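**Backbone shape codes:**
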Amino acid sequence: MNELVRWVIYAWPFEVVALLWPTGMVQVLSGDINDGYGGTLGWFWVACTVTTLGLCFATLAALKERSYSAVMAATGLMYLAILTAFGTDLVARAILAG
């Protein structure tokens, strides 16, 4: 799980940059592209992006402990990171497709 989380941390900035450029989430956040909810979906995307990275670092911190409960906590944190990463991708695709 350590290796998986590290790969996510290394690859995540490239994913975010790909969604920001060329016509992407920067235009949504600046208001050039209307998300239909007054900018709320753009800020939800930012929250998902930041939360995913934070959850990955929390997972690494939990995995420093070698007890059963720490591994279970890390598993739960990683599941949450997967959900927020999915939210990042889904929201960007939904806004930019229209």
User: Anything to note?
Assistant: DSSP finds four helices and no strands in the chain. The helical segments are 2-20, 25-30, 40-63, 68-97. The chain has a mean pLDDT of 93.
